[in-house]
Specification:
Four copies of one chain form a homotetramer. Chain A is α+β, with helices and mostly antiparallel strands and 331 residues long. Chain A has a single domain (3-322), classed as Chorismate synthase AroC (Chorismate synthase, AroC fold), CATH 3.60.150.10. Chain A has helices at 37-47, 91-94, 106-112, 130-143, 162-172, 199-207, 229-232, 304-322; strands at 3-4, 9-14, 20-26, 64-67, 69-70, 73-74, 79-84, 148-156, 178-185, 213-218, 251-252, 255-256, 261-267, 277-281, 286-290. In chain A, helix 4 crosses helix 8 (304-322). In chain A, 68% of the residues are buried.
Chain lengths: 331, 331, 331, 331
């Protein structure tokens, strides 16, 4: 469903090549000073249009507040933010309607919605939908004073030297995957709700809503499977719960322990590779070679950090409100 | 929260050393033949008491149906299953109340619940809580005819030879982590709900509710971050959506694509290692060396497969009901 | 919260004198032919601008589809409908900011949101918010083929002759309340979910979201309290469940029984009466006489039928989808 | 669904003549002193076995805490309370399986669950299910210090003199309906969440889950439909929001205004009347006269006050937690 959250709730809508994308944010505390300006930095980071390896398609991505603000502050009523789509070339997609692009949702969407899906540019499955999420994240971050959320690409195509990883893709005339790491500082102890709503559960839930994410791990993550208990256990060393090591990544028993929250996501290579590919034409029943047209990122991981920060912020703010660590009216 | 699911909903309760653990299953289709017998195989697998490396604590784990069955069939009303706790040695825990065990929820629970938590054996944070989930999973599996869910340990302590991995731990007098892989066959195309409820999102959500899970990946997962798009993309080769490769692990755009669903979880080493450890006594404010008493698994990953199957079954059944692929009255 | 529904979910936003009001509809089946035209009749009924006793404020109330439609059909993705506010006279409200209008939400909103509420014309508490609900209702009705939902005013100011009731108010220079009855035909047996989600529970829930509703009753309702069991019980007389009488109003045990669903709501007189009133100026702490300015309905009950139909349609459609009586892809 | 609440959540299970009924309470604040004793007064009131006009069936109704308590206090983990059914005469029901009792859920349950329902004594539709709700209500009340919730029967069979109303039924050898009024004092201003979760919406939702409820009204309720605005509006007269009159019943714009919360429910006559009735035998397709056997209340309204108090307490506590007026750890 297109909703996430229990107290701070977001509802996403829109399509890549429809009229607009956007988000409704319900349950946002009243009294927060807020303007379009507050969102622009993160929205700009999401566009990534100036980076090597990101798509030259540049939506203006200007956030129009349509409700929920009054006199420059949030009112406690739902905030609706609308982004217009005004830089689309739908004809690129119409031509290849019956050839589902490998790695994209074309075929599953067609099956699921009985052929009624808006297929242009991935429609509702497009990464463009994350625009609204980034806006919500910027608001959530502003509400979480004293808490910092920072995500960054740590690897591209297996290379910690990102330029090198990207160059590999350019040389291969192919797209490439990457890793993004997120670190959160300043979280209180006690976020997370047993049994099903551990911090890891909720963050993983929303992280896998981000297109192209195929894995997530907390702290030492998959490496923990190779460790002994005496190595992995983090010994508490002061009354704030500070631990000597942080193999747990800040979450024990599903609950934040006051240490840095650390997790990583794996992002698959952009499905739209410049390379020629093969797929099945569902009208003819024949396999066909084809090339993806349109403008695409060589490495979507480059745009992922700000989206992951937003997803994290939205999730943690919800926990903070639930745990009554943030008030429903701020001042 | 202790609830999961939208149509098929489970509500978990209980503590490790309290009177009982159990589960309420709401939204289960009416008309399913069901008895305690149907649950025993999976419950036995969860206990794992006969395996090298698992705890000698052996609850009877007999499932008492307290509601929801009539004449040997489900009625459509909530099914409550109760497990009595009758093999507990709480005194083991009372002694070390003020020394939070590293890697356990002791300290976070104490902070979150203001010192009111049932600390004995981890209380509500204990892996014993998964008993109810395994029962629900057995019911879910029985409802999903034609769909098979199989999980297995694929590595212990970094060794694909499981005996060898376990022996490493025994030799080191330490606990050890592992990997568990789950494969689901027979799923229809079209499960998963954009934007936030992708198949990956929901499975990851519940997987991270399982104690000790620290990572999850679908298909090639983290390895996808090193691949080119032309390598990772799975070409569709027939009208059922069968793909030549399955790097996506059966999910594209968050939606099941009819291929085998494949994912892996990373399980950290059992927090209760036989090795002496160091922690902070929160009454004295002093660090102390101590040893974990009680009976514990050397490698909890050994018990995880049936729990992961259950979590997966519960999640997929919910999707199937939502997608109207399973009826609310079966016959 | 501003969301309602489990499968067919609506999310409302906006303020009376802000930039817009609107709704996001998530979970709408794909494949429904839909255009602005389909909504205009009901939106026009809601405006009620031509009726004696309704406000002369006439928004254009044109529904802009911002997402979820493609080639004239629903796609299965969220439908966002936006209504612009372009006929507001906010200055009417600014003057009396500190004098909460009796019967309005002014004072409670001020307390709840710490003075941050948009107070103009009731802000988010305005009946203007029902515009989106009416739009969603028109869509829901279109999906429910063979089911008819009809609501009508049955009394104004205690008079079954509506003209007479209205004239009473005009003569008294006062506003007046009324009763609205809703009848639904064609419902299948079996809607409603024990224990908490009876048909009555859900309909009452959403009915009390409509501004000014202060009571609801099903079938003979309050009169049932005076009846004997032998009188009130409806005897089943054929295999379709048709009953001889319908004192239950089509719902037994919280579940639809296949007979006509009948219920009534009580609507209080419009809070904005033309009469002079007395309230407390919260800045001076002094009582003051004042008159409500602005344009208002003498009897809001006149506009309620189409809103109640919409609320009912949205609720019943959700039950139908949950009970799998309507498919998630229509054709 | 068998769940209610957002922060304080209850999950009901059980059948009238099955093994047990009960409730899981999730989200209960930690640190509340609690024992079986705290529940007995309200559970005794629900049984009503000593009152003229209530059923002689007397379950012991002893609440067994199966989880969530430790050292006499709530822990923050789910509280499961089990009631055994040990005084049932199922054979009474078996005989008339194919003759649905008018006014009962027999026929709708049979249709909805494909004949798989537990039909004995109404099964999951029985008023016996309210036992768990009453237990949850007693806990909720204990948490709401300074807030009093009192419900009472105000009319039986149209008579304010309750003895007289009951005698009418006894004389007529019939069952009879009644009215129950609930008054809550001490509520803070600001409970209720626009647009859909008004105080009235949530209370009406849960009130209609109580068997036999057919109407609800707040404040002057249905009488408001006959009033002028200048009469109905409650003028605020001090800075606490105290109003001169209380026609609104303590809720304006769906939000509590700090005045007494007042509402009434209409309860239909007990469906199981001693009088001979007529129904359709669904096996023969023939109408039949029959008499209801078993032990039943002449007037279920007599047992309703404590149930309505519980429903109200559960609902208001949830609002208080949501509004952060009650802490998640009490002391």
């Amino acid at each position: 469903m297109n909703s996430f959250g229990r107290i701070f709730r977001v509802h996403i809508f829109g399509e890549s090549h429809g009229e607009s994308v956007g988000i409704v944010i319900d349950g946002c505390p009243a009294g927060l000073s807020l303007s379009e300006e507050d969102l622009l930095t993160d929205l700009e980071r999401r566009k990534g249009g100036k980076q090597k390896g990101t798509t030259p398609r540049q939506e203006a991505d200007y956030p129009f507040f349509k409700s929920g603000l009054f006199n420059g502050k949030t009112t406690g009523a739902p905030i609706m933010i609308l982004f217009e789509n005004n830089n689309t070339r739908s004809e690129d997609y119409n031509k290849q309607r019956s050839i589902p692009r490998p790695g994209h949702a074309d075929w599953v969407a067609h099956q699921k919605y009985g052929g009624q899906e808006d297929y242009r540019g991935g429609g509702h499955f497009s990464a463009r939908l994350t625009t609204g999420l980034v806006a919500a994240g910027a608001i959530a971050k502003k509400l979480m004073q004293g808490i910092t959320i920072r995500a960054a690409v740590t690897e591209i195509g297996g290379e910690a030297d990102l330029e090198k990883g990207l160059q590999k893709a350019i040389d291969a005339k192919d797209s490439v995957g990457g890793l993004v790491e997120c670190r959160v500082n300043g979280l209180p102890v006690g976020l997370g709700e047993p049994f099903f709503d551990s911090v890891e559960s909720q963050i993983a839930h929303i992280a896998f809503a981000i297109p192209a994410v195929k894995g997530i791990e907390f702290g030492t993550g998959f490496a923990a499977a190779n460790m002994f208990g005496s190595q992995h256990n983090d010994a508490i060393e002061n009354m704030d719960g500070k631990t000597r090591t942080n193999h747990a990544g800040g979450v024990v028993g599903g609950i934040s322990n006051g240490n840095e929250l650390v997790f990583r996501i794996a992002i698959k290579p952009t499905a739209s590779t410049p390379k020629e590919q093969n797929s099945l034409n569902w009208e003819t029943g024949q396999a066909e070679n084809f090339s993806v047209k349109g403008r695409h990122d060589l490495c979507v991981a480059l745009r992922a950090p700000v989206i992951l920060e937003a997803a994290t912020a939205v999730t943690l703010l919800d926990f903070l409100l639930l745990e009554q660590q943030i008030k429903r009216v701020v001042s």
